[in-house]
Amino acid sequence: MRLAALLLALPVALAAQQPAADSPALAKALAQLKTDNAWTLQKQVALCEVPAPPFKEQARGIAFRNEMVALGYADAHVDEVGNVVAELPGASNGPTVLIAGHLDTVFPEGTNVAVTRDGTRYKGAGIGDDCRGLAVVLATARAVKQSGVRFDGRVLFVANVGEEGPGNLRGTRHLLGTTYKGKVDYFISVDGTGNDITSRAVGSNRYRVHFQGPGGHSYGAFGMPNPIHAMGRAIASISEIKVPRSPKTTFNVGIVSGGTSVNSIAMEGVMDVDMRSESAEELAKVDVLVRKAIDDAVTAELARWPASTKGLKVRIDTIGIRPTGAQSDSARIVRAALAAAHELGLKPGIGASSTDSNYPISLGIPAITIDGGGDGSGAHSHDEWYDDGAAGYLGPQWALKIVAALAGTAR
Ligand SMILES: [Zn+2]
Predict the structure, then answer these.
(1) 130 CA to middle of ligand 1, Å?
(2) Where are the alpha helices (H) located in 280-346, listed in sequence order?
């Protein structure tokens, strides 16, 4: 509903606000992204063949840094947490725009990262998510440099660590919370394939919950509280939690483990819980209900065995917290992305997701995550593929046009 309304309104908005013509240097850079498309693809493959497991993005980071230095970004460097950052100073005091792709993959060390090609289709772990984003950032930085584009504001070209689950956005947190705290006006993440925009942040709270007790023989020690039974009670309660359909709010117990044998009262039951919402308020509400379900489950399990002197303990470890925040689809950054897409003949959908943009959005910094163009599928699986199709170059062109619109072009 929201999307349909917005797309209908778009031609009117554009008619009222004609985009400024591209400067000659910008036009040259845009043309280069098309003519040198093979270069972009080659780098996408090359970067992808450097492994980047969670928390082990160093090798791919160095490869990206070396590419940036070779392009003339002499200051390109790897920061304290592993992000690669290169600055293009602004010609005047325009806004600072940060554009990033993420280095990390979900694949563990030892995964085969060779990329194979079948016609125009490339297959490889991470080839779309997010080697495509890295290639788009790199190609954009190259076209800007070689065409002599000057922006009014500073542009930060970034390859960041820690986007995927376990990374908990640590790369983006470091950039926007420490290095460039208060100094970034617009944040663009290029992530994956296609031509859509993520403008709203789905926040998530993820916990690993340990239920623990002394344990004992299932027959001989019978009559004491059982951690796995307590966990079962908690799961049953969690499964009954009522959440709103809009703003979409969800919960899931995704992994359970524990116990050592069928004839032992377990010493431990462990469950991983994930909760998500587009609304910080609803996320906080479901969080309270999940914690209450856990507390009540322990109370009920202890009450079941009043004669027992044995207790139960619960430990909740945080696996990940992705903040959410409100950002309107009429925000300037979203309108700039839509206008640029329209000029290129693209018709992006707008949606909500959990990406590197969550953190800036939670801070009130305008942020979007855009797809990197082309077509692809199978992210986070070994069947992941990317196909540039006839017009994959539109991805980097779109990214460049958004950067130019936000940073302003001096010439
Ligand atoms: Zn990604």
Answers:
(1) 5
(2) 280-304, 332-343
